[in-house]
Amino acid sequence: MDSYEIRGGTRLSGELRASGAKNAVLPILAASAMIPGETVLDHCPDLADVDNMCRILTHLGCRIRREGETLRVDASRLHCCSVPEELMKSLRSSVFLAGPLLSRCGQAILSTPGGCAIGKRPIDLHFLGLTALGASVTEREGRLFCRSGRLRGTEIRLDYPSVGATENILMAAASAVGETVLTNAAREPEIVDLQNFLNGCGAQISGAGTSVIRIRGTGKPLRSCRYRIMGDRVEGGTYLMAAAVTGGTVTVRDLDPVWLGAELAALERMGCRVERSLPGECEPFVAIRGPQALRSPGFVRAEPWPGFSTDLQSPLMALCTVAEGTTVIEDTVFENRFQCAGELRKLGAVIRVNGRRAEVTGTAPLAGTTVTSGDLRGGAALVLAGLAARGKTIVENICHTDRGYGKFDIVLKELGANIERRDVNERERRGETTGVSEE
Ligand code: UD1
Fold first, then answer.
1. pLDDT tens digits for range 14-67
2. Is the pLDDT at 438 greater than 60, yes or no?
3. Active site residue 146
4. 81, 105, 116, 340: which is the annotated catalytic residue?
5. Ligand 1 atom nearest to 124, measured from its CA
6. Cα(326) to centroid of ligand 1, in Å?
7. What residue ranges do the domains of the chain occupy?
8. Which end of the chain is more exposed for a tag (fewer CB within 10 A), N or C?
9. Using a 6 Å cutoff on CB, does residue 334 contact ligand 1?
10. Topology of domain 22-228, per CATH?
C-alpha cells in the first residue's frame, strides 16, 4: 500500500496539459469491443482503471498495444462474451461492456461491477434500457446473463439522467435496427465524446449534450476509426483547486472551460482569479490565481452536468476547510460521498455531515498528520488538504488516486509541491506504517 508524503505550504505554479479523460476513455474502450477491426485511440491516460479495462478486453480476445498515449485495440478476433467476476470487480466501468457485447455477440455474461464505495450505485437503469432494446437479463448466483436477438430501436425514458446508463444505451442502440429516442439522458461532456467517437465509426447519433438523444440504428456493424479522447475535466479541475488552495498560479491546457462552468464560478466566489480561452478557440485552457486567503463559496450543490460535478465535490471540500466562513455542500448524486470528511477532521478541519449535506467551517491552517484515502476523489481531497497543511501529511492507501490521476505526485512536484510517493516497504524500514489494513 503506497502513500504520499506531503510537506504543505508551497505555492504551486506552472503549466500542465490535461490528460485524456478517464470517464471518456472507459466507455469508448468498451465500445471498441463491438468493432470488428482496429480502433486507434489517441490521448489515452495512463491509469489503473484503463489497465483494468484493457485486461478485460484482452480476456475477450482483443489484441491491445500501447504506444505512448495511443492505444490500439484490435477486436477482430473477439471470441468471448463472458467477463469473470474478478475482472468485473476490478472497475465499475466493466458494466459498459453489456451494450457492446450484446450488440456484437447477442449475449453478455457479467456480474455486478466494482468501483468506489460512494453509495449503493445500482445498475438497474442500464438494464432497463437494454431490455427496452430487446435484450433479456437474468441474474443467477451473482452472475448477470444478458441475451438478445437483433436489438431494435425504441423510445426510452430514463427516470434519472445516469451517465453510465446513457452511455450503455447509446452503444447498444448504435448498431440496433431502427431509431432510438432517449429522453432524460445525461448531458455530461463525456457523452458528447462517446457520440463523436461512435459517429466516427459510422453511427448516426445526434443530441448528446442535451436531454434528448436520437440514435438512428443502421443494423450494421460499426467500422474502425481513429479518435482523440477529450481532456479530463475532473483531473484538470483538481489541479486548478490545488493551485487555489496554495495561493498559487497554474494553467491547465487542453481543458475546455465550458466543461467546468459551475466549478470555476465557485472558485471565483472563493476569491480566485480565473482566465479562460474563448468559446471555439482551438487551444482551450483555464488559468487560475489563488488568493492570499480563500473565502467560502457559500452553498454548493453537486448535481448532474451542467451543475457542480460530484467528482470535484470532495476536492472542493478540502478548499472549504481553509476558506473563511461557512460552506454548505450538498451532493444530490451519490448518497455517501463525504467519506473524506472524517479524515479531513484529523487534519483539524471543522466539518459536520448530516445525510447528503456537509457544513464546513474554515479554519486556517490545517496541521499535517496521517490520513487514509477511502475513494478516488476523497483521496485527491486529502492530498489537496496536505498541500495546504502545516508540517507533514501522509496520505495512505493511494491505490484509489492511482485510478484517476496519472503520476499525481510527479505532476504536483513539477508545479512546485513538496510531495513524495513512498512504497510500503520503504515506510516499514523507516518504522512509519500505521497498520491500516488494505481494502
Ligand atoms: C459516472 C462517472 C463518475 C461520476 C458520475 C456522476 C464514469 C466512469 N464515472 O458514474 O465519475 O461521479 O458519473 O457524474 O463515467 N443510478 C441508479 N441506477 C443506475 C445507474 C445509476 O440508480 O442504473 C444512480 C446512482 O446510484 C447514482 C446516480 O444514479 O446515485 C448517478 O449515477 P451515474 O450517473 O450512473 O454515475 P456513473 O455512470 O456510475
1. 999 999 999 999 999 999 999 999 999 999 999 999 999 999 999 999 999 999
2. no
3. no
4. 116
5. 23
6. 29
7. 3-19+231-429, 22-228
8. C
9. yes
10. UDP-n-acetylglucosamine1-carboxyvinyl-transferase; Chain (3.65.10)
